[in-house]
TrEMBL record:
Name of the molecule in the record: MAGE domain-containing protein
Organism: Felis catus
Record-linked PANTHER family: MELANOMA-ASSOCIATED ANTIGEN F1, MELANOMA-ASSOCIATED ANTIGEN MAGE ANTIGEN
Transmembrane segments: none
Region annotated Disordered, chain positions: 1-61
Matching InterPro entries: MAGE, MAGE_WH1, MAGE_WH2, MHD_dom
Gene3D superfamilies recorded: MAGE homology domain, winged helix WH1 motif, MAGE homology domain, winged helix WH2 motif
Top-rank taxon: Eukaryota
Bias (Basic and acidic residues): 16-25, 44-56
């Protein structure tokens, strides 16, 4: 989707063109819904942006001037990607705020108030913003008309189980909880507090700053999610300065299957769940435990029903 530049310039999107009557902007939005992996659960550090070298290839000697030039280009590329990431996060927040009024959002508004001089990268920016909206907040970005470039958001989030009612029927809050549970699971069933806050920042939120969908995210997590026993929160032993970590709470373990969370993560990365063998084996074991527990519960219910029937006790 995003072409990595070979120079220090901002990444250049593929040329817009017609493909079955769709313009480049529509192609980018469609591609984001079908092919592009989401960066939301990835590590915050970027992969090496330099050109790859073949294994065993000899490293050419660099003069001091060449080394400085190479370092300057690498720094420029990192700055370009950070700016692009920041623009995507700002556009997501802008779209969520505009959606409160339930009025269509135009491309010209996005360029004027958020994108600015990066307007040539609009197809890439809108595609990445669509990924963030879909995976983090449960909204699908729909283009209403290519002529005037208008968009609306549609709430598409469906609960994994029945816990949405316990979260106040709030789709975005549920989406945030599942994101945190996925991060914890992929980190080996515990995630440091700093890792959770970093994930929030990549979603365009500041943990201690008011967010119009979540209120204060840090308070939501530490008070609501922890008090409702969706998350455990404890200090990590023998850490100086003290550090805290999150893990799945007992309610999450009872209500949410690890296989479904792993499937959610796999969908984000456009991979199959078995791509992560350790987590996949653990999820299979969890599914087997759930099946046995369900079978025992059903057998117990049938036994009670037969006993009641013999005793002449009816359920009505």
């Amino acid at each position: 989707m995003l072409q990595k530049p070979e120079s220090g310039a901002l990444p250049i999107p593929q040329a817009e063109g017609k493909d079955g009557g769709r313009d480049g902007e529509t192609q980018a939005l469609t591609a984001s819904q079908e092919e592009a992996p989401s960066p939301l659960l990835q590590e915050s550090s970027k992969e090496d942006l330099g050109a790859g070298r073949e294994e065993g290839a000899a490293e050419p000697a660099l003069t001091p001037k060449g080394a400085r030039t190479l370092a300057a280009k690498a720094l420029a590329r990192r700055r370009a990607y950070r700016r692009l990431d920041r623009t995507v996060a700002e556009l997501v927040q802008f779209l969520l705020v505009k959606d409160k009024k339930k009025s269509p959002i135009t491309r010209s508004e996005m360029v004027k108030y958020v994108i600015g001089d990066l307007k040539d990268l609009f197809p890439e920016i809108i595609a990445r913003a669509a990924e963030h909206l879909r995976y983090a907040f449960g909204f699908e970005l729909k283009q209403l008309g290519r002529k005037h470039h208008t968009y609306i958001l549609i709430n598409k989030l469906k609960p994994l189980e029945e816990e949405e009612e316990d979260l106040g029927g709030d789709g975005p809050r549920l989406g945030l909880l599942i994101m945190i549970l996925g991060l914890i699971y992929m980190k080996g069933n515990s995630a440091r507090e700093t890792q959770v806050w970093e994930m929030l920042r990549r979603l365009g939120m500041r943990p201690s700053k008011y967010h119009f969908l979540f209120g204060y995210p840090k308070r939501l997590i530490l008070e609501d999610f922890v008090q409702q026993r969706y998350l455990n929160y404890r200090q990590v032993p023998h850490t100086n300065p003290p550090e805290c970590e999150f893990s799945w709470g007992p309610r999450s373990n009872l209500e949410i299957s690890k296989m479904k969370v792993l499937g959610f993560v796999a969908k984000l990365h456009k991979k199959e769940p078995h791509h992560w063998p350790v987590q996949y084996r653990e999820a299979l074991a969890d599914e087997a435990d759930r099946a046995r527990a369900k079978a025992r519960a059903e057998a117990s219910m049938r036994a009670r029903a037969r006993a009641n029937q013999r005793a002449g006790i009816h359920p009505w």
